[in-house]
Amino acid sequence: MAKYTLPELPYDYAALEPSISGKIMELHHSKHHQAYVTGANTALEQLAEARESGNLANVNKLEKDLAFNLGGHVNHSIFWTNLAPAGNGGGGEPEGELRAAIDEFFGGFDKFQAHFTAAATGIQGSGWAVLSWDPIGAQLIIQQLFDQQSNTAQGTVPIFQLDMWEHAFYLDYLNVKADYVKAAWNIANWANVAQRFETAREKTSGLLVLS
Ligand SMILES: [Fe+2]
């Protein structure tokens, strides 16, 4: 059975300061993300045990545990690579085909940022703002991801996502979510997003057949 593992960050904990403090990054990566990895492995182990014993009474709980924790692992793994130190891979604006697609589907980078920011700051409870490739519509869409696993469509591929759980910003920004989102633009790694965009478009063409 596959074992999920905590990925190394591609930069030091303090590398994203002042947008995100080293203290938040260390807690977020070594404690929170690690907990999702552990939780996903535990859920898979317990599901295997349940199959083996034939006692599937807890299947609802275990499936929910798997979705939540594996969701957390996926979300954070993408999130870390979506970021880079300001001026050293982070910040600026997207270029090339990604920029053209953002212009096409959102009416310009400013409108995209406003839409994404509203989605991020407006999340009710814990969650994520996500820029996704929708292979059915062959378009970019913005989604609000609730908790780690809810409110997004099956098959959409996240290419840029921002953690809006309080653990992601509260130590630095208290309740002022808008300042956190504003600071996040300074560390957005558009080259990583562009790479994810290219892969998503290439690999998902024809993947979902609806009829
Ligand atoms: Fe998080």
List keywords for this structure.
single chain; 211 residues; mainly alpha; Helix Hairpins; minor pseudopilin epsh fold; 2 domains; 7 helices; 50% helix; 11% strand; binds fe (ii) ion
In short:
The chain has 211 residues and is mainly alpha-helical. Helix content is 50%, strand content 11%.
CATH top-level class of the largest domain: Alpha Beta
Query: How many DSSP helices?
Result: 7
Radius of gyration: 18 Å
Strand order across the largest sheet: 2-1-3
Query: How much strand content do the residues show?
Result: 5-15%
How is this structure best described in words?
- The structure is a single chain.
- This protein has helices at 22-53, 59-81, 96-106, 109-121, 170-173, 177-184, 190-204; strands at residues 127-134, 139-146, 157-163.
- By secondary structure, it is mostly helical.
- The chain has two domains: 20-81, Helix Hairpins, CATH 1.10.287.990; 96-204, 3-Layer(bab) Sandwich (minor pseudopilin epsh fold), CATH 3.55.40.
- Strands 2-1-3 form a three-stranded antiparallel sheet.
- A hairpin with a 4-residue loop joins strand 1 (127-134) and strand 2 (139-146).
- Helix 1 (22-53) packs antiparallel against helix 2 (59-81) and helix 3 crosses helix 4 (109-121).
- The model has no long low-confidence stretch (mean pLDDT 97).
- Bound molecules: fe (ii) ion (FE2).
- Fe (ii) ion binds at residues 28, 32, 76, 163, 165, 167-168.
